[in-house]
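Can anyone check this?
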Amino acid sequence: MTQNKVNTQNPLRNREDVQHLLNDLLSAVSPYTEKGKSGIDLGESTTHYGKEIAKMEALSRMLWGIFPLVAGGGECADLPFYLDAIRFGTDPQHPQCWGTLRDFDQRCVEMAAFGVGLALLDKRLLQHFTAQEQQHLADWLNQGRDAVIPNNNWNFFPIMVQMGFKQAGLPWSQDAVAARFELMEAYYLGDGWYSDGPGRPRDYYISMAFHYYGLLYAQNMADVDPSRAALLRQRAGVFAQDFITLFSADGAAVPFGRSLTYRFAEAAFWSAAAYSKLDVFTPGIVKGVILRHLRHWLKQPIFDRDGLLSIGYHTPNLVMAEDYNAPGSPYWACKIFLILALPQDDAFWLADEAPLPVLPRTHCIPHASQILMRDAQGQHVVMLTSGQLELNNFVNTEAKYTKFAYSSQFGFTLDRGRYGLNHAGCDSMLMLAEGDGYFRGRRDCAETRITEDAIYSRWLPWHDVEVRTWLIPCGDWHLRIHHLKNQRPLDTAEGGFAVIQDPATRSQITPNQHAMAVTACNGISRIVSLNGGSEREATTVVTPPNSSIMFAETAVIPVLKASYPAGSHWLISAVCAGTGSDTGDLAAPEIIREGNQLHWQYQGRSGQISLA
């Protein structure tokens, strides 16, 4: 098989460079396209919806890049294959037909790409098909109009199809669109934020789904639905002020939540903002976010030997895959290429790439229960968070949602087994065990509160164990205060951020054994006990390989460990990490706890918080 490598040295400075990147991605897939087929078979791993639908998914995910490319005047060498696949897949008499939808069917998800293609290309897409073939396409897509689907971002998929019908001059249902929007209105939280369904998470689906599709709708349907289009724009503009704080100065975003294997889709919102002319940041700022994000990803080993996107995050890693991650699933990253629908003379492409705007060192997002922290240079972004949980319990849900902190530079580790602290993904977690080596940490929270200065959570790892936790941004550090009430003896271990373990990695413990710093090739990670005469002892935990989503090597985590009898106990620590050598020299914050009041001081700044 001919290998089609992706040019990872692409400078990604202009429209032509971005077009080359997309064509590299598509060329790597070309050897897997088969004449006469309506899907693409990219590998042997599979999903809960099976291999046949996964082949159709792989094909449709490519269309998120192909349709903007063609709409903007670019050429796709394999376009005849994709057009034939659409003919075969939607022809009810063809053996390659994609078939009839069932309830909660993945094929409804993949229909959205066709709706967007019809919208971007107006009537130009339909010109490739006969009248009969056009009817087949419309009939197949219309299955999703009233389909039974999850009550979450999936409601946008039928909307995208109807939007495409309208733009292409096909019969469409305004009532079906209104009904889907009404369902989603029930979980609008305010200030530009949705949850992904009633009581569901607030993760990257809010940016790459709700607002991405919302801006596509606003741009294409303003003539028939002007009030909703204006509302969607207004919400996206407010959301953008929060969302930009998740990005570092070099283009990395904070990994958090599920579906991280979609990679570039972390920044897809900004492509939709550019496409829809959203009045938010300057075109140069938006362009900078997108191009730096793509350049960041090209530095990571995300492609296999044939140039295909792997399942994983910074490295191939099936340990992190959700039940719905098929070999073609990562190509939802192609959503970022919506900017290719913009002509060369668009303000976006004419603008000089600009750095991020001036952003605060800390930024509170109440609707997401998150506080974003950034270092002085904006290169390292840390998300403190509490209270989110994906109720579907996809693999490693706790690791993806319930840790205390997530880092743009150090990511997080995954659970690798039930027994032993080194398998428990203890970074940015307080892990508890009953002396048997089976550790559990925070999962769901019984209560959460958030202010500009702290996030509070109350969680119950056992029915007779209560932990109250406060997370406090504190300059280069964040403070963690836990009040443990346990009616059973417990072993505890609390971890900082995970770094690479290799022969050059050094661990340094303070003489009183209450602080640990680990210096590795990818940075320095530190944790300090601030309990005064604390019984917590600093040490390290080394994980198995492929535990981190950021690197394949084994990881080392600085931890504080102690065993406690039944009773009431305070556990207070400070955590920091960074890639600069000065990280190891930073003095820890000073704290004083007086009853239910905690006072802290760091580099001339001070604050206090009630622990009542």
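Reply from J.R.: I decoded it. The longest strand covers residues 567-578.
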